[in-house]
Design brief:
- Chain A: InterPro entries: Ald_Oxase/Xan_DH_a/b (IPR000674), Ald_Oxase/Xan_DH_a/b_sf (IPR036856), Ald_Oxase/xanthine_DH-like (IPR016208), AldOxase/xan_DH_MoCoBD1 (IPR008274), AldOxase/xan_DH_MoCoBD2 (IPR046867), AldOxase/xan_DH_Mopterin-bd_sf (IPR037165), CO_Mo_DH_lsu (IPR012780).
- Chain A: Keywords: Molybdenum, Oxidoreductase.
- Chain A: It holds the Pfam family MoCoBD_1.
- The structure holds two protein chains of two kinds.
- By secondary structure, chain A is of the alpha+beta class.
- Chain A is built from 19 helices and 37 strands.
- In chain A, the strands form eleven sheets. Chain A has a seven-stranded mixed beta sheet, sandwiched between helices.
- In chain B, 33% of the residues lie in helices and 24% in strands.
- In chain B, α10 packs antiparallel against α11 and α11 crosses α12.
- The N and C termini of chain B lie far apart (45 Å).
- The N terminus of chain B is likely disordered.
- Classes of the chains: A alpha+beta, B alpha+beta.
- Bound molecules: flavin-adenine dinucleotide.
Chain lengths: 806, 308
């Protein structure tokens, strides 16, 4: 062989395919400030819309007078619910089967609710005009505490539902009740508890918080009155769904609606929902014939568009004295705010909360969830997690720690004892899921060995003694979490959004010179799809990732897909990409056979082309094959080299991981310092280890924020508190702990490349690890459970109540 | 009476009635002398506001908690800049930035507590813009410099259309956003008596994160002779409507050997004068206790640092 001929390894490396730590190609523009976001868009004659919002959490709206605002030069129009009624859009359907006011229709149900939409020539005028819109309110009694929502004398929030005893998910048994959702075998579960040798019961709350992408929700809507075409640029995690919903609501035919999601500055679930701002901008452009931009500010974002969590989980575990768990019983009170606008697949009012059995082999279990209305903002999005999976993980991982304490067992040992064993996969859980694959013991053991778990426990013991002797005011906590996620929604047999099945798609087109354009139904918001999707294609069809362009977000060009959230892109779109690529490779094989004048069956795939079996010198590269595909295809084969694939997954995927947090707490101030955080993730096949590491770092930082203080609070009047970055905890580089990452690899058996998804694991697994560390630190002083968030004053309060202040 | 910079209630973390990020309309002035600035102030009265670094005022304007019609940018007034050594005292021009306070070798030598405190304010970007004058004139109990100035017994030099006068930092603050400054007056400089050589000092600040105002903070300056405290001054940040001079606590420790019982009494005396608001940093009880912890720690550190 000639020295210049690249070796197999060199050819492989040149692809930068799966497994390569390829640098993110999108970062070239992001780091230079050259991204193209919605708010960068400026169209001729573009108007700006902004909301008049309610200062009250619950009130009748008795009068709206916009006349003074309309007198201000530059104000074009002011929309109210009355105007929207003309186009049947005063209310809109929610993803959860409820309806939601677009603009206040006679009353408001939460502070900062949208009351009127001011349309002006620019942002400044719009803001001035907002001050001039006069609104009269008649205050009503406010309901903030979800535990009081179903009291007999609780105020009626949803007068529009008067007399409706049946909701989208079955019977409602109170005027503020939304649904009850139950899964599992109640009788068996009750029996297991009656016979239990040991049991625990604790109300574990996961407080209300909010995703906080750098870019808030925004859109530009532009109606071409001549062609009747509507174009909407927006921060959409699921642009095709937005197009379908816009068509259904507006009756504009779907082919005349163009939805474009340009670069998105983070989503974390915040950009899945449909918000009044989108509807009002669309109506405004239809009314005015001019493009209309709507951009949320930070306070609007935090106080109105889609909170997350707010689950209050009464958790019971039954076990034998030796620690073997026998049953799990969970009741959730879910605070949904004024409207049920949860972003879950339509048939799942509590998302996949029934993953709550976690990583453990529970023979029986029962879960029951009651959703209630309160005077708070609507939402309930999956904040960097699959639907309600982070709530489920928190519930079971706190529960296991509480059980360990009661049994006097080490929490890591208790987990080891109860893990689903490798030979039990595919594993059917008591609450109805089929776990695809896992090797929990190996992952846990690796994590414990790496972090030096046993010696940390010894150190903790010594420190507790020192604390008791008064030698130190610091206590030490070790947080253990072993989580199993359920991601990749999902099989069309059980997952849809407003009737649209949750498949995903990819289209790959190889050009004659061997470069590629590919488009997907997914939509990156920072996950790095332009980098990783190209890597999958590179490995599958042997074309360097650098020669592959990935394009997402334009509904005119991309194949229909359900978008990116719930860690579904790699499990679903990623599979579609691999399968579309394989179609191309199959055709390439036919072309190569023709070129080499051999039978297809005499060929074998080798990195970046086909070679004749037993004669590797006789080969055709993909580059050569691409040219031939267009210019010299075999007879009877149509020219061209492209493929589309739509993928309806046979099952979800189940990533898992073992996280450990070591924390030191100053009992006098309540300040917690993270000494170490170790995260072992198993997300199956790893496409780009560097991107995985980045995703884990980001998710852990969010988890740290949520567990340690990030919260949307309300006072008893329903005033939303802390909805600005002065108060809403976003850690800076100074507060953020150092992250140690690690992995094991257990591929998904049903996914074409064995990948499971990773972006959300660190948020799901991180929160329980932090919270367990705080709780673990205080355990020796007699505490069982301390509620999140663990900000300094609450930790201090716990310390005080446990007598740590002397 | 006082310039009501903002309504007493206009605080960051208060639930807001309107939702804005865009200021109202205003006219921008950029005078080049104090006299010129005072003339503009005089002709517009309450409608005019001086603008220093803008890092308190502009956020307030964006929230429309402040809506001045005339903004008088002081950054072109050279006389308001600079740090001067006047022997027994140091005079700092109102427009000196927090970054310049940190960089000053003079302050590092004579008043090191100023650098220590400045480094705990916000972040470098904000400190490049934010000024000492703006920080002390703002009247927000969350600002760190006012308590420090009270601890150091500083004097604010004010100029108005009626002439110049001096106001002690300890007499300056009346309520949140209400100060002794008249609407047509400017703070031109701050004069700080230099504490005895070898003095001990500490500024202890508890905050939730970088860029946050104090949950509670304490400034301590003390001198010692052997193991005895010979002089002490203590002031507290953000645990009341105004900065608080903890004179009783300081008296308790003066003359003592800073033994545990004395420190406990001083801490209790400091806690007793607090009246913090409950907010996202915690309930009032917590913030009072944290003021105590900060005093405790600042005393210990200042004592350790003091040369005997
Ligand atoms: C994110 C963030 C975090 C912060 N954290 C802290 C912190 O931890 N601690 C802290 O102390 N500060 C903090 N600040 C405030 C910062 O230090 C400000 O810079 C400071 O409070 C005001 O100084 P300024 O020069 O910016 O004044 P400006 O904002 O320009 O003015 C403040 C007020 O003082 C008046 N004023 C200004 N100069 C004069 C003068 N010479 N005479 C009379 N009146 C005058 C103005 O009219 C205005 O009412 C923070 C600010 C931000 C944005």
């Amino acid at each position: 062989m000639n020295d210049m001929t690249p070796t197999r390894e060199q050819r492989e490396a040149a692809l930068e395919g799966m497994g390569c730590k390829r640098k993110r190609v999108e970062d070239i523009r992001f780091t230079q400030g050259k991204g193209n976001y919605v708010d960068d868009l400026k169209l001729n004659g573009m108007l700006f819309g902004d909301f008049v919002r309610s200062p009250y959490a619950h009130a009748k709206v008795t009068r709206i007078d916009a006349s003074k605002a309309l007198e201000l030069p530059g104000v074009v129009a002011v929309l109210t619910a009355e105007d929207l009624k003309g186009v049947n859009l005063a209310w809109m359907p929610t993803l959860a089967g409820d309806v939601q006011m677009v603009l206040a229709d006679g009353k408001v149900l939460y502070q900062n609710q949208e009351v009127a939409f001011v349309i002006a020539e620019n942002r400044y005028i719009a803001d001035d005009a907002i001050q001039l819109v006069e609104v009269d309110y008649e205050e009503l009694p406010v309901l903030v505490d979800p535990f009081k929502a179903m009291d007999a004398d609780a105020p009626v929030l949803r007068e529009d539902l008067a007399g409706k005893t049946e909701g989208a998910h079955g019977p409602r048994n109170h005027h503020n009740h939304i649904f009850n959702w139950s899964v599992g075998d109640r009788e068996e579960t009750d029996r297991a508890f009656a016979e239990a040798e040991v049991s625990i019961k604790e109300m574990i709350s996961y407080h209300r918080t909010h995703p906080s992408p750098l870019e808030t929700c925004q859109c530009v809507a532009s109606m071409d009155k001549v062609s009747g075409e509507l174009t909407v640029w927006g921060t959409f995690q699921a642009p095709h769904v937005i197009r379908t919903v816009a068509s259904l609501l507006s009756t504009i035919p779907e082919h005349k609606i163009h939805v474009i999601a340009p670069d998105i500055g983070g989503g974390f679930g915040n950009k899945v929902g449909a918000y009044p701002g989108y509807i009002c901008a669309i109506v405004a452009t239809i009314v005015t014939g001019q493009p209309v931009k709507w951009v949320e500010d930070r306070m609007e974002n935090l106080s109105t568009t889609s909170f997350a969590r707010d689950y209050h989980m009464t958790t019971e575990i039954a076990a034998k004295k030796d620690g073997t768990v026998t049953s799990l019983r969970v009741h959730v009170l879910a605070d949904h705010g004024g409207f049920d606008a949860c972003a879950d697949p339509s048939k799942w009012p509590a998302g996949f909360m029934n993953i709550v059995t976690g990583s453990y082999d529970f023979p029986t279990a029962h879960l029951s969830v009651d959703g209630v209305y309160t005077n708070k903002a609507p939402g309930g999005v999956a904040y960097r997690c699959s639907f309600r999976v982070t709530e489920a993980a928190y519930c079971i991982e706190r529960g296991m720690d509480i059980l360990a304490k009661k049994l006097g067992m080490d929490p890591a040992d208790l987990r080891m004892k109860n893990f689903i064993r490798p030979e039990q996969f595919p594993y059917h859980s008591a609450l109805g899921w089929e776990y695809d694959s896992g090797d929990y013991h190996t992952a846990m053991q690796k994590a414990m060995d790496t972090i030096g778990y046993r010696s940390l426990r010894e150190e903790q013991k010594a420190r507790q003694e020192a604390f008791k002797r008064g030698e130190t005011r610091e206590i030490m906590g070790i947080g253990v979490c072993f989580f199993t996620e359920i991601v990749g929604a999902g099989p069309s047999k059980n997952c849809d959004i407003l009737g649209v099945a949750m498949f995903d798609s990819a289209e790959i087109r190889v050009h004659p010179t061997g470069s590629v354009i590919s488009r997907m139904g997914s939509k990156s918001q920072g996950q790095g799809h332009e980098t990783t999707w190209a890597q999958i294609i590179a490995t599958e069809i042997g074309i360097p990732a650098a020669d592959i362009m990935v394009e997402e977000g334009n509904t005119d060009t991309a194949p229909y897909g359900l978008g990116t959230y719930g860690s579904r892109s790699t499990p679903v779109a990623g599979a579609a990409i691999a399968l579309a690529a394989r179609k191309i490779r199959n055709k390439a094989q036919m072309i190569a056979a023709h070129m080499l004048e051999v039978s297809e069956y005499d060929l074998e795939w080798d990195v970046d082309g086909f070679q004749v079996k037993g004669n590797p010198g006789l080969r055709k590269s993909m580059k050569e094959i691409a040219w031939a595909a267009y210019n010299a295809p075999p007879p009877n084969l149509e020219p061209g080299l492209e493929a589309v694939s739509y993928y309806d997954p046979p099952n979800m995927t189940y990533p898992f991981g073992a996280y450990f947090c070591v924390m030191d707490i100053d009992v006098d101030t309540g300040v917690a310092k993270i000494r170490r955080f170790y995260a072992l993730d198993d997300c199956g096949t790893r496409i780009n280890p560097m991107i995985i590491e980045g995703q884990v770092h980001g998710g852990l930082t969010e988890a740290f924020a949520i567990a340690m203080g990030q919260e949307i609070r309300y006072d008893e009047m329903g005033n939303v508190l802390g909805a600005s970055f002065m108060d809403f905890f976003i850690p800076t580089a100074v507060e953020t702990p150092h992250w140690e990452t690690d992995h094991t690899v257990t591929p998904s058996p049903h996914h074409p490349i064995g990948a499971k998804g990773v972006g959300e694991s660190p948020n799901v697994g991180g929160v329980p690890a932090f919270s367990n560390a705080v709780n673990d630190a205080f355990g020796f002083l007699g505490s069982t459970h301390i509620q999140m968030p663990h900000d300094a004053w609450r930790i201090w309060k716990a310390a005080k109540e446990l007598g740590a202040h002397g | 009476m006082t310039r009501s910079s903002f309504e007493a209630a206009a605080r960051w973390d208060r639930p807001r009635e309107e939702n804005d990020v865009i200021p109202g309309e205003f006219i921008y002035h950029r005078p080049s002398s104090v006299a010129e600035a005072l003339a503009i102030l005089a002709s517009h009265g309450d409608e005019a506001r001086p603008l220093a670094g803008g890092h308190s005022l502009i956020p307030m304007m964006k929230l429309r908690m402040a809506a001045p019609e005339h903004l008088i940018d002081l950054s072109g007034v050279a006389d308001l800049k600079g740090i001067r050594d006047e022997g027994g005292s140091v005079v700092i021009g109102a427009m000196t930035t927090q970054h310049e306070l940190i960089a000053s070798e003079l302050l590092a030598a004579k008043l090191p507590i100023i650098r220590e405190t400045s480094l705990l304010i916000a972040d470098p970007q904000i400190r490049y813009m934010g000024t000492l004058g703006g920080n002390v004139a703002n009247g927000d109990p969350g600002n760190d410099m006012p308590a420090l100035m009270q601890c150091l017994n500083a004097t604010y030099l004010a100029a108005g259309n009626g002439g110049e006068r001096e106001i002690a930092a300890r007499d300056f603050y009346e309520a949140a956003y209400f100060t002794a400054l008249a609407p047509d007056e400017l703070v031109t400089a701050i004069r700080i008596p230099v504490p005895a050589a070898g003095h001990g000092f500490a500024y202890e600040k508890l905050k939730r994160k970088v860029g946050d105002y104090a949950t509670a903070a304490a400034a301590v300056i003390l001198t010692r002779d052997g193991s005895t405290v010979t002089g002490c001054s203590i002031a507290l940040t953000n645990v009341g409507d105004t900065p608080l001079l903890a004179s009783e606590a300081a008296e308790i420790v003066t003359g003592s050997g800073l033994d545990a019982a004395t420190v406990d009494r001083a801490v209790a005396a400091a806690e007793a004068i607090t009246n913090p608001a409950a907010d996202g940093r915690g309930p009032a009880e917590y913030r009072t206790k944290m003021a105590g912890v900060m005093v405790h720690r600042a005393l210990a550190r200042a004592f350790e640092r003091a040369g005997s």
